[in-house]
Design brief:
It is built from no helices and eleven strands. The termini are far apart. Strand 4 and strand 5 form a beta hairpin. By secondary structure, it is mostly beta strands.
């Protein structure tokens, strides 16, 4: 199994910045893509940013130019630097990792963190 633990959420004023971190642990053989998703009250969970094992990022249109995803493969950690935050960025942010474990060496499964709250005040 893989455990994902997010940190770095909080309350910030519009225009401010936050940096989220997510550490993966467990019987990990390898991690493929890692990503950040968010879910606002009454809305569906949406993809915010994704990064491949090789470090290639992709972003939702709504965050392009403001958010930066990065990862440290030596630490099984993914980051999300969020700048120029807007009230509409308020949501619970979830980390996701596609990983192989000792119990599933040949198959990648998706694992989710518990989420961290980001609140942007106007």
């Amino acid at each position: 199994q893989v455990q994902l633990v997010e940190s770095g959420g909080g309350l910030v004023q519009a225009g401010g910045s936050l940096r989220l971190s997510c550490v993966a642990s467990g019987s990990i053989v390898s991690i493929n893509d890692m990503s950040w998703h968010r879910q606002a009250p009454g809305k569906q969970r949406e993809l915010v940013a994704r990064i491949t094992n090789g470090g290639t990022p992709s972003y939702a249109e709504s965050v392009k130019g403001r958010f930066t995803i990065s990862r440290d493969n030596t630490k099984n950690t993914v980051y999300l630097q969020m700048n120029s935050l807007k009230p509409e960025d308020t949501a619970v942010y979830y980390c996701n990792a596609r990983a192989r474990t000792l119990a599933s060496v040949n198959t990648y499964y998706n694992y989710w963190g518990q989420g961290t709250q980001v609140t942007v005040s106007s």
